[in-house]
Specification:
This protein is α+β, with helices and mostly antiparallel strands. It has four domains: 51-361, Aminopeptidase, CATH 3.40.630.10; 371-469, no CATH class; 493-586, no CATH class; 591-688 and 713-822, 3-Layer(aba) Sandwich (Rossmann fold). The relative contact order is 0.08.
Amino acid sequence: MKKSIFFLLLTCLITTSIFSQNLQSPEQFLGYEIGTQFTRHADVVNYFKQVAENSDLVEYSTYGKTNENRPLTYAVISSEENLKNIEEIRKNHLDNSAGNKTNSPNQADKAIVWLSYNVHGNEASSTEAAMQTVYELVTNKKEWLKNTVIIMDPCVNPDGRDRYANWYNQVKATPYDASPLAAEHNEPWPGGRPNHYLFDLNRDWAWATQVETKARLKIYNTWMPQIHVDFHEQGINDPYYFAPAAEPFHEIITPFQRGFQTEIGQNHAKYFDENGWLYFTKERFDLLYPSYGDTYPTYMGSIGMTYEQAGNGEAGLGIQTTEGYELTLVDRVAHHFTTGLSTVEIASQNVEKLNSEFNKFFQNDQLSYKSYALNGSADKIAALKALLDLHEIKYGATNSGKIKGFNYSQNKQSDFNTNENTLVINTNQAKGKMVKVLFEPNTKLSDSLTYDITAWSLPYAYGLEAVASNKLLNLNNTAPKTAVNNTTSNASGYISKWDSMEDARFLAALLKEGIKVRFSTLEFENEGKKFNPGSLIITKSDNRTYKDFNSKIITIANEHGRELTSASSGFSKSGPDFGSSEIKIINHPRVGVLRGEGVSSLNFGEIWHFFEKDLHFPITPIDTDYFKDIDFSLIDVLVIPSGRYNSLFNKETLAKLKSWIQGGGKVIAIGNAVGSFADKDGFNLKENKPETKKDTTATANLISYASREREGIKDLITGSIVQTILDKTHPMAFGYGDSYFSLKLSSDSYSYLSKGYNIAYLKDSPEVVSGFAGSEATKNMKNSMIFGEERIGNGSIIYMVDNPLFRAFWENGKLFFANAVFFVNNENFRLKI
């Protein structure tokens, strides 16, 4: 027996020795010292595979793919014993996140730490640090792994990282050039920061519009970590930032979460002080906007933190700072490596406290609003349900009848009538605090100086009537209704409603199939039903040469869940008949979108994503490099994203553009691109100038240096929600009611169009229903146009002062954009080349 035990021990020692001999450090595997090159994403993946294959302490998996087919991966790192029982550990931990109040001892006895690297592609030092960190954990820090499970995502944004790394490796000098003037420190448009669709993934956690986020949330919800770190980079002269965060903190953040951030920060400071490294805390990066990699986990019970290293895409392998020292990639990696290990260390030292406080976070009795009830079109309710499903937030229906509470559309306490389709989300669930954050009518601000937008309430974003109630509502389950249409061979045509993006997708699908579609500009009645303006009409007459017309229409409608009304006759009981001039044809528009230098890469990405992923409709990107030389006859619509166009839209180019519009072209200008046409010859748009007062004492210059930033916010709007008035008779407003809640992102203000159509606008007393707007900026919003159309000759220019596609999450704005493309001044057929 003793002999057998001896041989067993010997076998284990030999096996462990083989593992440790085969396990390679990053330098051994890659062939260069970490920090002396930027590693391609494929090589990062191969390194993590090598570690997992040669260590019993790491499991490595793929959780999805990017738009450019790069793998999204994560590693689970813990002791060998823990990994053998990892499913039991995970379930015990999730049971703890249910917030159950129980006298029995909780089975959760491990700390769960999630480390996310390289969410911004050109903040590339962190992925290099991730390789160094995983190696250190499984070789020299095994003791921490006994009571800790680390989830490590080595690269959240592979497409952006490779865009940056490949560019840098192509242009850098050998040896690298530290001068800020060198090409290697000046990225071309759009830079490596965003993902494929040029979205900022660090602002997509809550909205989950991107493929990377959707895939990540599935894994995140299976673990619900107690600590989450998002590794970043900032300007080259700001050394290093770590927790605690800056004000404002959202009110649901617990004293423990705030205090433990400080505890973690103090542990980091110990190591930074020992090494003589500079750092700062409590500045700039607040915890309010819910869609960051620090705030989203925080609202899910975690200690969510951002770590910011000096560098960014500007730094390359090394750069001379304005403070007279050289910042190298080797330095940057060392700093992220240190804070990563320090985070795991402090978690390992506080397992019992982390588990106890984690459980308390999910007890939501203290929340004042117990339920949120929402009414609206089935399509908009379904879109909101899809978002809630991604976050595993529970919902149901109610038969409560009349509810008293805060009414969102009225911005006051009032009664709210429910119906069989009313959606209810209660806060007495594990993720009740996240429900509060996403649905609260107006976020409480402890400080108006914030890092991002201050309003995002989902009832406004999804265009739903809503009430927030102090009463807990009973829930019922409801099964979704599926539209099933049948072929009708003798139909004169088919009618379909128009009030959601699902309807717009249906239209886009019909047009791509070559099916001709019309829309009504007036209300009408046919087959005993009343139809609102914007309703789609697909006639047999328009499509008489289309083979299998009826079956094709039915197939597409069923695929999109559209309920068609089969019209036996084009004769309407009231309103226009099918042949009326008020029933306008929708031509298949050829859409060009401006991109390149001067264009906001974020807004271009939003437009690109809208057409390809939301609408599934083709566009032609046109670069600013050759824009002035293009043949405008090849497009029908030109979308100009927000951007700076002073040099591009010179007198000559504007004249050429105006001539094309006069011939029937259509421009859609968004955000600050609208300003390119303000006060210019031949355009009716006028900018509202802020009121100026005579100041003989020059008091403005007597504001103290320390007060200038805070004083300046009087002129700012940092993402607030305003209620606009709509001209719902204009085709661009079809599908909407008398008003629209717009997300205002800037203080830009323009007068009403004296020649043209003011489609959405503000009057004397604009109402900010949620979020922060500076006093002076609010005054300047008075009597201003938000959406407008100016006719020039046979064409149009559409002004969208507020961006309806912002981060793809303002769902209720998207139909305005679809209307602008398909409905506005689009009925005249033009020969296509």
